[in-house]
């Protein structure tokens, strides 16, 4: 079994006020995977990232970066990690090239203009390399933040809400870049409020709430296990309540009496739909339209946070 890119053991963060931002988090992240960490504001996502990246001191617990203790081998660990934080932390009076190149120098690496050029080209920043940062748009500044994080060629990249506040076009470009990095073997851990991005991009998903990691699952397996399908039947005539003949399927009736909703497991050998439709026909209940909806990762996430999914 290969060594995880990142091994988090019993990581806890408590403040003098008694608030526990993290409650003994355990997590292994495999080399080369894209891991999405989801959770509401204040759940502990940024605290977890900040501890791993050496910006915040943990109350207890440890992190192994490619098998090495992140405090005993601090410089080596930081060299392997790149971070794109939520907040902009760049000198707005510096040119793009200088800002990115300086980030590489901070890690004691030799000058490599070819690498810096490639990073800027990958992020569509090459034409802006001489521009002063304050003259760039918010989206371009976000690209510079990513370029800074990639300047020292990290093996592990943290993206903390990387597409917050950027337009759709830039978001797509960023995810294309993430895929390219993964192809090069970079391990990527991202937090995002755009859950559809996690659904599209991630290999595995972790859900954190109130400092606790409440679920870690392969995305495809999570969707398979928890993903429901819903059948909506638009009725030809309104019903006042669900007839006894349909009670076995436990359908829900809309307030206006015109829609029946039936939840089913799409992976079950028998979904119950044919028998439900036959029972409706026998009861003289006609419908004029039907459609099905697959529950998304967002539905599952909301259910986990609010205790509706076990």
Question: How would you describe this structure to a colleague?
Answer:
The protein folds into two domains: 219 residues, P-loop containing nucleotide triphosphate hydrolases (Rossmann fold, 3-Layer(aba) Sandwich); 67 residues, 2-Layer Sandwich (Alpha-Beta Plaits). It contains ten helices and 14 strands. The strands form three sheets. The protein has a six-stranded mixed β-sheet with strand order 6-7-8-3-9-10, with helices on both faces. A four-stranded antiparallel β-sheet has the order 2-1-4-5, with helices on one face. It has a four-stranded antiparallel β-sheet with strand order 12-13-11-14, with no helix packed on it. Helix 3 runs parallel beside helix 5. The protein is elongated and about 80 Å long.
Total count of domains:
2
Put simply, the count of helices is 10
Structural class designation: alpha/beta
H/E series: EEEHEEHEHHHEHEHEEHEEEHEH
Tally the beta strands: 14
CATH topology assignment of the largest domain? Rossmann fold
CATH architecture title of the largest domain: 3-Layer(aba) Sandwich
CATH superfamily of the largest domain: P-loop containing nucleotide triphosphate hydrolases
Distance between the termini: 30 Å
Please state the CA-atom Rg, rounded to the nearest Å. Answer: 24 Å
InterPro entries: AAA+_ATPase, ABC_transporter-like_ATP-bd, ABC_transporter-like_CS, ABC_transporter_ATP-binding, P-loop_NTPase
Organism: Sphingomonas kaistensis
GO molecular function, one term: ATP binding
Keywords: ATP-binding, Nucleotide-binding, Transport
């Amino acid at each position: 079994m290969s060594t995880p890119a990142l091994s988090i053991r019993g990581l806890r963060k408590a403040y003098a006020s008694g608030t526990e931002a993290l409650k003994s988090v355990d997590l292994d992240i495999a080399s080369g995977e894209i891991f999405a960490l989801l959770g509401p504001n204040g759940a502990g996502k940024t605290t977890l990232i900040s501890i791993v990246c050496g910006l915040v001191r943990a109350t207890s617990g440890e992190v192994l970066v490619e098998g090495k203790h992140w405090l005993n081998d601090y410089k080596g660990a930081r060299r392997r990690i790149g971070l794109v934080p939520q907040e902009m932390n760049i000198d707005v009076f510096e040119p793009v090239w200088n800002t990115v190149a300086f980030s590489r120098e901070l890690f004691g690496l030799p000058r490599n203009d070819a690498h810096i050029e490639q990073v800027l080209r990958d992020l569509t920043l090459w034409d802006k390399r001489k521009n002063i940062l304050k003259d760039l748009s918010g989206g371009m500044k976000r690209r510079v933040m990513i370029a800074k994080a990639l300047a020292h060629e990290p093996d592990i990249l943290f993206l903390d809400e990387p597409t917050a506040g950027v337009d759709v076009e830039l978001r797509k470009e960023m995810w294309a870049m993430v895929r390219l990095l993964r192809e090069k073997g970079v391990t990527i851990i991202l937090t995002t409020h755009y859950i559809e991005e996690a659904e599209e991009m991630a290999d595995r998903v972790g859900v954190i709430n109130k400092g606790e990691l409440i679920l870690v699952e392969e995305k495809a397996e999570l969707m398979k296990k928890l993903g429901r399908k819903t059948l909506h039947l638009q009725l030809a005539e309104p019903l006042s309540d669900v007839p006894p003949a349909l009670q076995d399927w436990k359908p829900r009736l809309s307030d206006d009496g015109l829609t029946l909703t039936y939840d089913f497991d799409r992976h079950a050998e028998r979904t119950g739909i044919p028998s439900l439709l036959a029972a409706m026909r026998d009861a003289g209940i006609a419908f004029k339209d039907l459609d099905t909806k697959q529950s998304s990762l967002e539905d599952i996430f909301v259910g986990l946070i609010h205790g509706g999914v076990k």
